Amino acid sequence: MGNALVVDDSSTERKILVGYLQELGITVSTAESGEEALDKLKGNIPDLIVLDVVLPGKSGFETCREVKGNSATAKIPIIICSTKGSEMDKFWGMKQGADAYIPKPVDKEEFFSTVKRLVK
């Protein structure tokens, strides 16, 4: 069903999200920071990015803005998954170009339906 890049500095959260994506038959690579994610995008364009907001260095919002602002990566769907789950956070995430915003702890069914909607 494609491949995805999971960007989260928490190893526990990465394992959960990777497991969910693998259940859907998606090949997954990971990054622990926005900078590492942007580096990985230079060599391999995934079908989906799952992005945390609170990251060391560049925030998920900044990373999202950079991905969507680059013509080579602008069409990659981005799901922001974050503990920052207020309406203002969701609004700001979508304003940065995210295609979906799911608060943590991630609801598995919501995550599955969102991934299926974005990765055709």
Outline the structure in words.
This protein is an alpha/beta fold and 120 residues long. It has one domain: Rossmann fold, CATH 3.40.50. It is 44% helix and 19% strand. The chain contains five helices and five strands, in the order E-H-E-H-E-H-E-H-E-H. The protein has helices at 11-23, 34-43, 60-69, 87-95, 108-118; strands spanning 3-7, 27-31, 48-51, 78-82, 100-103. Strands 2-1-3-4-5 form a five-stranded parallel sheet, sandwiched between helices. Helix 4 (87-95) links the parallel strand 4 (78-82) and strand 5 (100-103). Helix 2 (34-43) packs parallel to helix 3. The longest helix has 13 residues, at 11-23. The mean pLDDT is 96.
H/E series, N to C?
EHEHEHEHEH
Number of helices in the DSSP assignment: 5
Please state the average pLDDT score. Answer: 96
Beta fraction: 15-25%
Secondary-structure arrangement, i.e. CATH architecture: 3-Layer(aba) Sandwich
Intertermini distance: 8 Å
SS-derived structural category? alpha/beta
Order of adjacent strands in the largest pleated sheet: 2-1-3-4-5
Rg of Cα set: 13 Å
Largest pleated sheet: 5 strands, parallel
Briefly note the CATH topology name: Rossmann fold
CATH superfamily, called what? Response regulator
Task: Report low-confidence residues grouped into runs of 5 or more.
Answer: none
Shape: globular
**Helical content (DSSP H or I, runs of 4+):** 40-55%
The count of DSSP E runs of length 2 or more, i.e. the number of strands, is: 5
